[in-house]
TrEMBL record:
The UniProt record lists the keyword Cell cycle: no
Organism per entry: Cellulomonas chitinilytica
Domain ABC transporter: 3-233
Gene symbol of the encoding locus: cysA
GO CC terms of this entry: ATP-binding cassette (ABC) transporter complex
NCBIfam families for this protein: 3a0106s01
UniProt keyword list: ATP-binding, Nucleotide-binding, Sulfate transport, Translocase, Transport
Record Gene3D superfamilies: P-loop containing nucleotide triphosphate hydrolases
Domain of life of the source: Bacteria
InterPro entries linked: AAA+_ATPase, ABC_SmlMolc_Importer, ABC_transporter-like_ATP-bd, ABC_transporter-like_CS, Mo/tungstate-bd_C_term_dom, P-loop_NTPase, Sulph_transpt1, Transp-assoc_OB_typ1
Protein name (Swiss-Prot/TrEMBL): ABC-type quaternary amine transporter
Length: 311
């Protein structure tokens, strides 16, 4: 199901959370709303889901105007960062809950829940209570519960935000694989650039209540629309007054055309990467190198080098 937002504005008192926002989410896509805290991305998600009503503009799902339709009539599934599971119910009953209140036949409920538990790799934990699950397992249960009623749209508001880095990495790969299997139109909110770049088909960068840029992960990283998007989408440094990626700075021991002189102030080895802080006449910058490159150049603090952007 496609999603369209046209001229959506939302205020909370004097604060403008969304300012004339347009958005077009393609049917079956996995779309990330990415931006800093307070930028408007969660408000936009809540407007799409019917948890907030816009002050102006329209929201449609599959071509139907949903602007004033209550959330429970939109056939939308929600997953939040802190998912309120029923602690006294088993994993099976938590996933089944939405189907049971819709009075679906017991055989249908059993079949659907078993399918979903297998899909999210929790079939062996069906009888456990939420407190007996890890954080990652609880979020997989939350996704199964959201998918149980076969929603046309799935909305996730920083679903992995409360988890540690290792589990987040595991779950975002799992989310991508799950989406490729179920193909439900999905919109998720995150402030984690790496998460958006790894998981999403399309990224919507939201800042100060406005959409800064929409595009594929490659487009936003390689062809940012402005300095804000470039700085938000990954590491940057400044060479000759221009923002560049630290890995797009060539370092040589001898002068080459277009290069500026500099002196290495500090070296840091971080795994396979070497970070070089370099002082130039225009100011300080940092450069990202491989260990092999740094070793070949025989870099040490105090080394004289030449620098130029290669993009």
């Amino acid at each position: 199901m496609s999603i369209q937002a046209n001229g959506v504005t939302k205020r909370f008192g004097a604060f403008v959370a969304l300012d004339d926002v347009d958005l077009d989410v393609h049917a079956g896509a996995l779309t990330a709303l990415l931006g800093p805290s307070g930028g408007g991305k969660s408000t936009l998600l809540r407007v799409i889901g019917g948890l907030e009503t816009p002050d102006a503009g329209e929201v449609s799902i599959a071509g139907r105007d949903m602007t004033r339709v209550p959330a429970h009539e939109r056939n939308v599934g929600f997953v939040f960062q802190h998912y309120a599971a029923f602690q006294h119910l088993s994993v099976f009953r938590n996933v089944a809950f939405g189907l049971e209140i819709r009075r679906r036949p017991k055989a249908e409920v059993r079949r659907r829940v078993n399918e979903l538990l297998e899909l999210v790799h929790l079939e062996e934990l069906a009888d456990r209570k939420p407190a007996q699950l890890s954080g990652g397992q609880r979020q997989r249960m939350a996704l199964a519960r959201a998918l149980a009623a076969e929603p046309s749209v799935l909305l996730l508001d920083e679903p992995f935000g409360a988890l540690d880095t290792k589990v987040r990495r595991e779950l975002r790969g799992w989310l991508r694989a799950l989406h490729d299997e179920v193909h439900v139109t999905t919109v998720f909110v995150t402030h984690d650039q790496e998460e958006a770049l790894e998981v999403a088909d399309e990224i919507v960068v939201v800042n100060n209540g406005k959409v800064e840029q929409v595009g594929s992960p490659s487009d936003l990283y390689d062809k940012p629309a402005n300095d804000f998007v470039m700085e938000f989408m990954g590491p940057v440094t400044r060479l000759g007054g221009r923002l560049v990626r630290p890995h797009d700075v060539q370092v040589t021991a001898a002068h080459v055309d277009g290069a500026v002189p500099g002196r290495v102030a500090r070296l840091q080895r971080i795994g396979f990467e070497v970070r070089a802080d370099v002082t130039t006449a225009d100011g300080d910058l940092w450069v990202q190198l491989t260990r092999g490159q740094a070793d070949t150049l025989e870099l040490t603090p105090g080394s004289d080098v030449w620098l130029r952007a290669v993009v």
